Amino acid sequence: MKHLKALFVLALALGFAAPAFAETQNVKINGSLDVYAIARGNYDLASGNDVAADPAAGAFPASGTLLHRSDGDEFIMSITQLGIAADLTDGVSTVVNLINQRDWNADTYGTAGTAQTGAENTGEEFDVILDLAYAQMKEIFYAPLTLTIGRQDLLFGRGFIVGWNPQDPTTAIQADEFTQVQSFDALRATLDFSPWTVDFVYSKITENNHGPEDDRDLYVAYTTYKFAEYNAVADLYYTGDFDRSAGNISGAVGTRSQITHTFGVRGQFDPISQMTLGAEIAYQGGDYSVSASTPNRDRTAWGLDIFGEYRFEGPWKPVGGIQFVSLSGENDLSSGTGDYSSWNGSFRGPIYGWYHDYKEVYYSTAQTNDQVAGQNQNHVSLYGSLNPMDDLKLTGAFWHFWSDEDMHTTTTDPNTGSLSDHIGDEVDLSAIYSYTEDVTFTFMANWFIPGSSYDSANDSTASEFVSEVKVVF
């Protein structure tokens, strides 16, 4: 009896001590390979400003500054992804996605003002990094509740406020706008009370030192109502971007913060089956700081998006659309004391021009008083597409940009002379050929024509030509 009891206790102890493994119901492995060949010209909007000779190390291309990217630039880059998705028991699933992004055996650009060494960042060229890693638990604790925890993509509405978080962790590509690492480290709780859906998100954008005084955190509360008719949707939301990182205000850790509170509404519907109309408007409040020695400025900014699209009947499936976007601006970027009215679109998803949207973000122009894209701009865009063959799609877009507030000959003195409000125009064209269900060829041609706000030395047309081969499995 004593031995039997001992065996029972041992079996019970082993039962508690044994590791528990979730039962896997289904596992899916997927991936993709994208190869881009890219040729660019005059990305700093200035022509003929290359240096006379190549650097001694033979770095390519020779350029006046690394940020200006030179008159001409040609390179090949590839993005390789491998993902695993597993369905476990009781509504639990996991997703992991690994990615490598690299220019083909190219010297990677350094930071502004530094010289290329001929071997910079090549050690990270073949690094595999983590893109997605999250677990999702449906009907956890409460039937309408779904929890998603970990590194995940976030997209709300059309992405006007939250859509992507672009990253290039290995700095192994120069065309950062093509990065496919767009994820957030986040905890998301979704309540599905159909036709109502309510989302709450907390995301850690930047940790820096281990302490809250220099972190950047993002909070989202997003409510959606889907109507029974006209494919109509209405959204109401709040986002809070609490940026206390030292990178924004040198020497002001814990004493100054960039805080952006965004409140917005969005609606869209199909008055007829071929047409979609919609609008979104948002207000931003909070604080803006330039330096540790100057007081906070109150943030008062506005964003507006109005769009319409018509899908024509016909064998070529033509589509046409028009959009107006206004992102408020500021003519005093110094340490002034008045309200700061420049729009903060740090996590916006849509692309407003393949060149313009990254101007002074990834690519500096030669004009010293140029402002960052994504704020202080209005634009009207016309776009369309058609399918002349079942496996061929042609698209085109025209953008006309002008400033919301007049820019000045210096960015820090609003009392200097005003510049023209015409920022420029952009034309983006693409052809997408589906060779098979798994293989796609894409060709893009983009041109940005600077407007009269640029002086004669810095108004050359920027051009970009991109060929892409994409294979998915």
Question: What's the helix and strand layout?
Answer:
Layout: H1 2-17, E1 26-41, E2 72-87, E3 92-103, E4 129-138, E5 145-152, E6 184-193, E7 196-206, E8 216-226, E9 233-243, E10 258-269, E11 275-288, E12 297-298, E13 301-311, E14 319-327, E15 377-389, E16 392-402, E17 422-434, E18 439-450, E19 462-472
Antiparallel strand pairs: 1-2, 1-19, 2-3, 3-4, 4-5, 5-6, 6-7, 7-8, 8-9, 9-10, 10-11, 11-12, 11-13, 13-14, 14-15, 15-16, 16-17, 17-18, 18-19
Descriptors for this entry?
disordered N terminus; 473 residues; single chain; mainly beta; 45% strand; Porin; 19 strands
Give a summary of the structure in a few sentences.
The chain is mostly beta strands. The chain is built from 1 helix and 19 strands.
**Number of E-state strands:** 19
Nearest-angstrom radius of gyration? 25 Å
Query: What is the beta-strand fraction?
Result: over 45%
CATH architecture of the domain at 301-464: Beta Barrel
Mean pLDDT: 84
Shape: globular
Kindly provide the name of the CATH class of the domain at 301-464. Mainly Beta
At the fold tier of CATH, the topology name of the domain at 301-464 is Porin
* Alpha-beta classification: mainly beta
The separation of the N and C termini measures 60 Å
Secondary-structure element pattern, one letter each = HEEEEEEEEEEEEEEEEEEE
Give the uncertain stretches in residue-range form: 1-20, 51-69, 108-120, 250-254
The major beta sheet can be summarized as:
18 strands, antiparallel, barrel
How many distinct helices? 1
Q: Helix proportion of residues, in percent? A: under 10%
